[in-house]
Amino acid sequence: MDLNFYSNFPSREEVERIPFQQCRLLNNSEVICWVLTHFQNNIRYYQWYCGASPQFPLIINENMPFFISEKLDDPVNVVIVLKIEHLSYQYRDLGFVLFHLKVSNVDNISSMLKIFSTNEIPNCTQTYDFKLITHHACCSFQTFNILFTLPNKDVYSVFAYGTSWNDVHPGDKMFYSFKPINAKTDYYDTVSLLSYGEDNSEIIRNYEAQSVFHNPPFW
């Protein structure tokens, strides 16, 4: 094992000293309710697909990552992922449920982040015409990067090895993004940073995410 593998990772304390904003996880209570309603409407399918006993409830991890398309006019421009667990004798990870959405009338990444990571926009599911395009479960933890669900305090583990935290500047907004090919294969591997130019234009920098078991598909 390479003992220098983690040498480029900052400590939790070093990360906490950088005044950037994490926009990786779903925090809008209205959107969470909207997603959970769709989840409950299809819970029997998820139980069957994951081989879960109906005697024990499915538990949804509180950390729900969301991903924004690099092109907001794509047919699918947001993906929300729920990590599901099974309450049996102990919590047991089962897999993930992925929701592919089309959110309309959004012109920039900043607005999209505000919709999903804050409660600042009321009635957003109707204002922005949320549409569920497709949804499905995946049971293999090799099909989705489990590190994307890490809580904010452990965000230092999300960036890939070799990615410098010196690229994270005060005022940056960190989020997850994807290209159309990622939505087709459900292989997500990008951490993005949003900053602003002198004319208040959006500047987005993309980085590879760290992964433990996540295997890319055959393209």
Structure description:
β8 and β9 form a beta hairpin. The protein has six helices and nine strands, in the order αβααββββααββαββ. Strands 1, 2, 3, 4, 5, 6, 7, 8 and 9 form a nine-stranded mixed β-sheet that branches. It has one domain. The N terminus is likely disordered. The protein is of the alpha+beta class and 219 residues long. The two termini are 30 Å apart. It is 21% helix and 27% strand. The longest helix has 13 residues.
Keywords:
single chain, 219 residues, alpha+beta, 9-stranded mixed beta sheet, 21% helix
Q: Helices and strands, in N-to-C order?
A: HEHHEEEEHHEEHEE
Instruction: Determine the strand fraction and express it as a percent band.
Output: 25-35%
Radius of gyration: 18 Å
Weakly predicted, low-confidence segments: 1-6
Overall geometry comes to: globular
Taking the sheet with the most strands, its summary is:
9 strands, mixed
The beta-strand count equals 9
Say what oligomer this is.
single chain
